[in-house]
Amino acid sequence: MTDAEQRNTANRTPLLSKLLPEPGPGRLLVLCTAVASLGNGLYMTGGAVYFVRVVNLTPGQVGIGLSAAGVIALLLGVPIGYLADRFGPRGMTAALALCKAAMLISAVFVQSFTTYLVIAALLGAAEQGGHVARGALVSGVMGREGRVKLSAYMRSVFNGGFAIASLAAGLVIAVDSPDLYLSLFWGNAAAMALVATLYMRLPHVPRQPRQPRPKRSPSAVRDLPYITVAQVSGLARIGPTALALGLPLWLVTHTEAPRALAAWLMLVNTLMVVFLQVYVARGADTVPGASRLQRWTFLVLAVACIVAGCSAGLPGWAAASVLVIATVFFTFGEIWGEAARWGLRYELAPDNAQGQYGGVFATGDALAVIAGPALVTTLPDRFGLAGWLSLAALFTVSLAVAGPAVRWAARTRIPATEESNLQGATPATTPRK
Q: Is 164 a domain residue?
């Protein structure tokens, strides 16, 4: 390499290091995320429109299918996580990506609400199961030192790719052609097939053999402190729902702000996530660091709700300014909350059961998935500022219980050295029996 080439490489390295992890398995996982985000952005933006415009389902039927998919995905998270531990997370993650591709191809042939309901449920199970298995894969490939930081890189890239694909899907919706709608399904299916192939190029993560009954670790579904942390952490995901669903509806129906601002608010959110998620995740790779970020999460979400509620009755320019400020607060709550979730989800789980513990942690999303949309739309719409204050109160209560819940879970972990002496293994932490 010439001196000029070396100087050019040196100049590019700092910028590249901010956008991507170091070359190796981590960068390949980010590439998988980028491909998946493009496919998901195409389908999620245009899929619902296709079922309404082409298949002639009602919006209500589409919503029922999405809700059913969310519930079934939550129920199957733990079994899928167990299988990821038992048979290896790499193969399980790739298999679920192929299952998702198969369901997307099957969705092309949906002609009735019944078949749509079945396909939507299976697609949701494959999607959520893939998240659980991939979490175990990230932990196995990157180890304790790199898994939280890589999760931040993956989320940053996913948001950027999803936004780009959503814009492309918007053009398809504008044309409103059945053939173009179907291209969204085929494009996402092709992306999932490619992602499955890329996953199999990652290093092999050994499966966890079935332990003899006397040495078997406690089941994640009986680890009450961990379950409690999961449920509290899941409440933070009501914040992104409030931003994506509640705030636009509030803007249109209760404020004088320009309606077009709704799209710009989501752009602000996307850019903040893309450029700040990795930076914000620093320090979340320990239980104390993640717990501190979680407390900041609930505090800033409570403030965001109060600020959003104050936008009613203001002149258009003032309401718009207040809503931008609320969006910034909501977004900080989102990126802090996700970083805290990764730290707590990984660090409080034993390394030999990351799959099943990840499945249990995902059950904490139940309230946000099932009740979140209703809460963030109904309360502000019916009660105005008082409705936003009710949401702020929910986050304030979450703030009060978050710290004690994490401390309880941390006290019930067995340190790695003690567990190693007990079982001849080297997991990070294991629940006390």
A: yes
